[in-house]
Design a protein that fits this description.
mainly alpha; 12 helices; cell membrane
């Protein structure tokens, strides 16, 4: 039966259509964050048997197989610019994952994601012309100092291996590129075709590294099973949800929600990997989250409000107008 022509009278007015349209994409982004961070925690449990390169190659290769089978993307009708965009998207995706998995192999998951966020946040502050963004830079810097353990005089430096921290920051730079090209790919390719093609490019980048590190260990049934779980949780589901969300919300709003990733990662690290957070760690992560959100909100306000921000969706998606 169809819906009634008129809604029954009620004391409370119905929710505005704009509210419903907003809540849908927000739910997509939150679900994406939960999936990718808990998937990353599962991936860490797989590293002792397959290695960091092995895990990321399994994740991307199995995810590419699933996405290609489900989406069956057409290869005709696209311009050279379209293919350049999806190749750049896939390269950013693959490189970001390779760097990030090297980081979580050395430092706690929550710390790795927090450091990853600092890269695009720092870039946004550098290019910003608003003095208020210096406040967000200071907050982020304080968070970094607390996380490293410099301010407390110990513990943090030993826990945060400097090589792992460097990998996390480099992954943040690639996260910036990923957001730019994911938005562009979503506009150029229908449905999730761009995800499938980009995932394939990313897998081709990571797979040789995984084979060189782990070889036949990657074909163990138990390793393949866990690798498939990681692929579904950390690649297939979240990347698809993010592309769908970016089509329905301003990219700066997307970036604000993605700023919550360090908190989600810390929670996943605690529940799955038993990586406890100290009060100082929690404060550091909170400061970075606030700095990231504040930089995005400042940039939105400086560029003409929500309507102008929506028109710019996909061109910039991160702290201070840069991607994250």
């Amino acid at each position: 039966m169809g819906a009634p022509a008129t809604a029954p009278a009620t004391d409370a007015p119905p929710a505005p259509a704009s509210s419903r349209r907003t809540l849908g994409p927000v739910a997509l982004v939150v679900a994406s964050g939960l999936s990718v961070q808990f998937g990353a925690a599962v991936a860490v449990t797989l590293m002792p048997r397959a290695g960091a390169f092995g895990v990321v190659s399994l994740r991307l290769a199995l995810a590419a197989v699933v996405m290609l089978a489900v989406c069956r993307p057409t290869l005709r009708g696209y311009s050279r610019a379209d293919w350049g965009t999806v190749v750049a998207f896939g390269a950013a995706m693959g490189t970001m994952n390779v760097l990030f998995y090297q980081a979580v192999d050395r430092i706690p998951l929550g710390a790795a994601v927090t450091l990853e966020v600092l890269g695009p946040l720092a870039l946004s502050v550098i290019v910003s012309r608003r003095v208020v963004n210096l406040l967000w830079a200071v907050l982020a810097l304080v968070g970094l100092v607390l996380l490293s353990g410099i301010a407390t005089g110990g513990g943090g430096i030993d826990r945060l291996d400097p090589v792992g921290a460097a990998y996390a920051l480099a992954a943040g730079a690639m996260w910036a590129a990923y957001i730019v090209f994911s938005a562009r790919t979503g506009r150029r390719f229908p449905q999730a075709d761009g995800v499938a093609l980009g995932m394939t490019v990313g897998a081709l980048i990571a797979l040789p590294l995984g084979i060189a590190e782990s070889g036949m260990k990657l074909l163990s049934p138990s390793t393949l099973g866990l690798g498939l779980a990681v692929a579904l949780m950390s690649s297939v589901l979240p990347y698809t949800l993010e592309l769908l969300a970016l089509r329905r919300m301003p990219a700066p709003t997307f970036a604000i929600l993605m700023s919550l990733e360090p908190a989600i990662a810390a929670t996943a690290g605690f529940l799955v990997l038993h990586q406890a957070l100290s009060v100082t760690d929690a404060l550091a992560i909170t400061l970075v989250i606030v700095a990231s959100m504040g930089a995005v909100r400042t940039q939105i306000g400086s560029r003409g409000g929500p309507r102008a921000a929506r028109k710019r969706a996909g061109r910039a998606a991160g702290p201070g107008g840069l991607p994250k």
